[in-house]
Amino acid sequence: MARIVVGMSGGVDSSVVALLLKQQGHEVIGLFMRNWNDASVTLEDECPWIDDSRDAMLVAEHLGIPFQVLDLSALYKERIVDYMFEEYGKGRTPNPDVLCNREIKFDVFLDEALKLGADFVATGHYVRKEEVLVDGAIEFRLMSGKDPNKDQSYFLCQLNQFQLSKALFPIGDMEKSEVRRLAEAGGLVTAGKKDSQGLCFIGHVSLPEFLQQQLKVKQGDIIEIERDAPAVLAHKERVLRGDGIDNPGVWHAKFQRADGKVIAKHNGAHFYTRGQRRGLQIGGKPLPLFVLQTDVEENVIYVGQGENHWGLISSGLFVREEEAHWVRPSMKESVLDSHELQCRFRYRQALVGCKLLAINGGFQVVFSAPDKAVTAGQFVAIYWHDEIVFSGAIA
Question: How is domain 3-206 classified at the architecture level of CATH?
Fold first, then answer.
């Protein structure tokens, strides 16, 4: 039997993980990660980590396993929060949950678990891990979870082989309904607890207030781009043709002031992201306005009417070499130029058919059909069947 540290979040998934491993006869230790100290920007009445840590402790007591709270708030601020401020300041939209898994749960937290003599770290992610033999060496495949409605493989797309070698995902082959049944049968207090929807181990956050802690309010123009404005129609055709195959910069619209007209003011382009609808506070239009592009250098936001505005459409995306990640490096030759690839560039998005091409300076992901709201700073994950083989931050 192994010594296994379970990352207990206070939710039903990680609670059932601890239950299953204890039933299997392993030596189980429960650790709760405290990643946040500032309640001023959370939307709950109380700091959520207090309630979550209490629920995790109650489960640990019920199971008769050791439990402690690990304060990682300083490192979380350094590696996740500061990174978020920096990315938003550049006009990019980071994904803190992907980063939290790479930098905190399977790095700092894993190191602490190994110091306790752990053989593995287990989490409540809906994802599967498989072992394969390649040239006499064991490699680990990162696979989609069995429950398509709960699959969380996207959030783990930046993990490497060492991290996967130490990771266990005991509920990856289960449906969510089965997990709740096991929790109820095991008498766990978290059996009926709702799933967390906020930032990784923080909770619901008021993003504008959060960003205004570091990013200054700076008034600028909101410019509307009409669907059929003569100045932009030629550019539209280039995007829909997929000219980015030859030029990484032509995957989606790049507007200029002359392409539209000023219709309102905003308080800082870095507070907005491509595809955003809420927060513009502009009425009187036949269709809702969506953010098509932000320009933090000129402090301009370009918007258009309707969720199907062509300015939201992309024919592909680009990942710089330094931001590219191979989950299994041995797969590189098999995957490049393959016709069996799919991708997603946001959680819960339906998989999109694509090709992955290596070019000077990075990698291009070419969609089989144009898609919308590709956002710089987010992560794209490339799937070969059910396995994530490649990921990277979108340029």
Answer: 3-Layer(aba) Sandwich (3.40)
